[in-house]
């Protein structure tokens, strides 16, 4: 953690800068820990109520959903029922992952509108695009078309009080001419309407610097996926604080990024999953927030 002197110095600079900088400079960074429920994808379908209870017991205050569909809903629970379950456990769901490939490819709004309705019903602020199929990547023109569709989705969602955000992996950083798909998305989307959920692990694994992205695109990253990189095998995750990524340093740039929600995601486990998510939450609350 920063020393008290360094903290006070930084706080003074932020306070002074807020007089002349845009609103991201004075935005309050995340103060609670969230969990992307995909981390517990093997446990959830069999016992959604029990799993949500254990997430709360592990010290989480927020969750990020995934996998909603009109047919299966939230693991068999309607949005209203799932919201009640979250409320019972002192949890909120400010964001969720919803696939937008069909809308991006065809413009068909049916699934998008159903997702917006579900996200609104559980009290979410963000619908996050978790992934793009191969056909929606490609060359510069295709990335620009995808960016335009994100703008269109944001305009549709806005009337329901929902924002659109985009979650990265590493393929977005592959060269596209003199740029990358990620840079195209950042530059071609409306900064006020389309935000980004930075998966820090994938940014680092792709060889890029999260702080440079925060600096170049101030205030665009209200959500971070926090998962650490295993020291021995960079292709797998480890518990936050146990790997190679300096999250303390990154969090010192939270205001620059516009951070509001810090979300743990663990894609693989080398210990009991509930022990793992608790270890990450305990480290974040003790050492970072």
From TrEMBL:
Keywords: Isomerase, Signal. One of its GO terms (molecular function) is isomerase activity. Residues 54-286 form the Xylose isomerase-like TIM barrel domain. This is Xylose isomerase. Residues 1-27 form the signal peptide. SUPFAM superfamilies: Xylose isomerase-like. The lineage of its organism: Bacteria, Pseudomonadati, Bacteroidota, Sphingobacteriia, Sphingobacteriales. The keyword Signal applies. The keyword Signal applies.
